[in-house]
From TrEMBL:
InterPro entries: DUF1648, SdpI, SdpI/YhfL. This is DUF1648 domain-containing protein. It comes from the Bacteria. GO terms for biological process: response to toxic substance. Coiled coil: none annotated. It comes from Thermus filiformis. Pfam families: DUF1648, SdpI. The lineage of its organism: Bacteria, Thermotogati, Deinococcota, Deinococci, Thermales. The keyword Membrane applies.
Length: 205
């Protein structure tokens, strides 16, 4: 991927830059956690509110850059997914900052819409990434058989697209059942990969 490290590190730099710019401009304490009703149930200092996620990104984003290069399978195409995840972290950070700035009355909205964007991101990349040890539906059966990997991730991409649209379009209070369905569907992908592998290899010694 051309300019891989630039696009990977740019959201990290933006997260730190925006936080440093806002630090003297916001009061404290600031809400750092909200319940499902959108009510703040824990407060913290400006340092925690503004710099916790950029600090987490500082450790994770360089790791994202290294993983495709150290995977023994040498997967091609994993870099785009890693860049997308880095930008998603920036979205999460900006969503919290938008709440502090009063741009949203309900803090649940930007967070859940961000989850929708993340699911759509995964829906785009999952059918395109080759077998690897760091991203995707990594079961013993998908890693063993490239065709099982391909078909499992094609199904995962379709499912993630539907969940992404749900998180973007449905009312926030209706999304808890959808989240529970997503968890169940994730388990279903594991079982699907096993069943598909079993069918493909049932006659082999």
């Amino acid at each position: 991927m051309k300019g891989y490290w630039f696009w990977l590190l740019l959201p990290l730099a933006l997260a730190w830059g925006v936080s440093l710019w806002l630090y003297p401009r916001l009061p404290e304490p600031l809400p750092v956690h909200w319940n499902l009703q959108g009510e703040a149930d824990r407060y913290g200092s400006r340092l925690e509110a503004l710099f916790l996620l950029p600090l987490v990104m500082t450790f994770l984003v360089p790791l994202f850059g290294v993983l495709p290069r150290v995977d023994p399978k040498r997967p091609q195409g994993l870099e785009g997914m890693m860049v997308g995840v880095a930008w998603y972290f920036l979205w999460l950070h900006l969503s919290a900052l938008s709440i502090y700035l009063g741009w949203f009355q309900d803090p649940v909205v930007p967070i859940l819409r961000g989850m929708g964007l993340f699911f759509l991101l995964l829906a785009y990349f999952l059918p395109r990434i080759p077998p690897n040890y760091f991203a995707g539906v990594r079961t013993p059966w998908t890693l063993e058989d490239p065709e099982v990997w391909r078909r499992t991730h094609r199904l995962a991409g379709l499912g993630f697209a539907l969940f992404g649209l749900g998180f973007l379009l449905l009312p926030p209070r209706a999304l808890l059942p959808l989240l529970l369905l997503f968890i169940a569907s994730s388990l279903g992908l594991v079982l699907y990969s096993f069943a598909l592998w079993k069918r493909r290899h049932s006659g082999k010694a």
